[in-house]
Amino acid sequence: MYTIRTEDFNLDYTLDCGQVFRWDKNGDWWTGVVNGAVARINQDPKTGELLVDSSLDEDFFYHYFRLDDDLPAIFEQINKDEHMDIAINKYRGLRLIRQDPWECLISYMLATASNIPRIKKNISMLSAMFGEELEDGLYSFPKPEDLAATCYDDLCECKMGFRTARIIKAANVVVTGDIVLDNLFRLDYHDAKKELMSLEGIGEKVADCIVLFAFDKMEGFPVDTHVEKIVRTYYGDDPFFEGKATKTKIGNWGRHYFGKYCGYAQQYLFYQKRLEGLI
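Above: the chain's sequence. Below: its structure in token form.
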């Protein structure tokens, strides 16, 4: 067990905001499975220090929680109006997470037409069936080759519905090397997104989530029904839309309005809407 000193970091907001699905809170402690290991973490409310119980080292969590991001500088860029100002001041310390590309890919494919409790359940079942048991009831995320080798009927037991065949296809694409996930780090935002959208079942919103949360593309501005409603309500009269605030146009607007860190702006607005509704 060890401690990590933090500044401008709120563990609860970061793990509760809907960007990751394998963490659960019990009392003051968050328990999660990440990078093939179990981690238990709590945060001192006064000092902000993290107390970590995991085989993963401090450097891993420093990178994972993006503690290298200069939040004050990011806020200077995205704090464009009163709505953003309120969200930042209420939920300051929420940071994006650097997720494992493979796990993020499958997790957000499972997020299509779903909700957070169902996504968490699907991932839990998938890991229990095809992952490695790390502790009682806690399993690693399945490897691409494990899902590529499974049959459709076995995967159906995870109750993923229409997503089942898409998951198998995605696993095969990764295993055969038709898409090399690590190569997406070297692509720019638009090319990385285009590559992901070549996979069946990945549209603009899911691709934006994956490039934002797994590939360091801060230009990702995922637009689901919540974000669409936020933008239409708060910013719908922006001349950028010319009266037509489609999801695609909202994503382009987010990049234009908030700039290169628009992914952070999206997450703050999304989390506020999720907890409070439109205010």
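Strands lie at 2-4, 23-26, 29-34, 37-43, 50-54, 133-135, 138-139.
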